[in-house]
Design brief:
Length: about 190
């Protein structure tokens, strides 16, 4: 059903994009969709991953298809329960349990999710980018500290290695570097 908002949405999408959405909702791959609408696979991928209007309409169509299928499955619940009763009486549960699993009465089957407007997708993208920026700002000092700690560990290992070589130490109690400094290097 086209609402005023949906009509505006359709004006922003080309016929090829609308056809691509129909094929994607049917479960075709990007490659198959591209072949059917006459574009490159990369174009379909670009639409799906970077075009907010396309994403919103795709989500809207998926939710519509899911809603229709869910209604059909709800109709089957009474029959599944009846079959379940018959199968229980006959000792076999497989078909009835599978039907109940599909409608969500046994296990979990979730409806497709996703924003159905480009504005909502844009807000969600901005929120994610804001959070990523905050995380980077919070982690930067920790990463710097880790880098410094790694350097200190390296120095500690070097000191341990030097200590293994004769156990000689300098005034501070650190292993002596004498003998390890090349002859052409000024020793101070």
């Amino acid at each position: 059903m086209l609402t005023k908002s949906n009509k505006t949405q359709h004006k922003k999408l080309s016929v090829k994009q609308l056809n691509a959405i129909d094929f994607l909702v049917q479960g075709l791959t990007d490659r198959e969709v591209a072949r059917k609408v006459g574009v490159r696979r990369e174009t379909v991928n670009q639409w799906r991953n970077h075009n907010l209007e396309f994403q919103a309409e795709f989500n809207r169509q998926r939710q519509n298809v899911w809603g229709a299928a869910k209604e059909r499955l709800r109709y089957l619940v009474a029959r599944a329960v009846q079959t379940l009763e018959e199968e229980v009486d006959n000792g076999s549960l497989r078909a009835a349990v599978e039907t109940l699993r599909i409608v969500g009465l046994y296990g979990k089957v979730g409806a497709p999710k996703g924003y159905t407007s480009a504005e909502a997708l844009e807000l969600d993208k901005e929120e994610r980018e804001c959070l990523e920026g905050m995380i980077r700002r919070l982690w930067k000092p920790l990463l710097e500290r880790h880098r410094i700690e790694s350097q200190i560990e390296w120095i500690d290992k070097l000191i341990m290695e030097l200590g293994k070589n004769g156990g000689k130490t300098d005034v501070l109690g650190l292993p002596s570097l004498s003998g390890r400094i090349p002859k052409d290097t000024p020793s101070g």
